[in-house]
């Protein structure tokens, strides 16, 4: 059985994988919306995944002063918006 923290990390990593695909130019919005819908179906999970994504965004921004991964960060921000909206 997966513990609660692992579930949060698993979903955050799934959002990151979708953002990576979008960053590479592949369509991502449908997958992003579908995953967000799945996560928001669990109200206690959505804010925790959004928090994990905000942490991930911070790590990416801190390690990327040239902002090469800016488009990926924007997709992750979009995911946070879907989880909090």
Reconstruct the topology from this structure.
Blueprint (H helix, E strand, L loop, with lengths): L3 H20 L5 H12 L5 H18 L6 H15 L1
Helix pairs in contact: 1-2, 1-3, 1-4, 2-4, 3-4
Give a written overview of the molecule.
It comes from Azospirillum aestuarii. This protein has 85 residues and is an all-alpha fold. It has one domain. The protein contains four helices and no strands. Helix 1 packs across helix 3 (46-63). The protein is globular and about 35 Å long. 27% of the residues are buried.
Number of strands: 0
Structural class: mainly alpha
Cα-based radius of gyration, to the nearest Å: 12 Å
Average pLDDT number? 94
- What level of helicity do the residues show? over 70%
Summarize the structure.
The chain is built from 4 helices and no strands. The protein has 85 residues and is mainly alpha-helical.
Q: What are the salient characteristics of this protein?
A:
85 residues; mainly alpha; globular; Tsi6 domain-containing protein
């Amino acid at each position: 059985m997966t513990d609660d923290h692992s579930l949060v990390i698993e979903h955050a990593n799934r959002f990151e994988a979708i953002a990576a695909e979008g960053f590479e130019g592949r369509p991502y919005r449908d997958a992003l919306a579908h995953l967000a819908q799945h996560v928001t179906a669990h109200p206690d999970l959505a804010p925790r995944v959004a928090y994990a994504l905000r942490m991930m965004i911070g790590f990416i921004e801190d390690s990327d002063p040239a902002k090469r991964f800016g488009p990926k960060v924007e997709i992750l921000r979009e995911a946070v918006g879907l989880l909090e909206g």
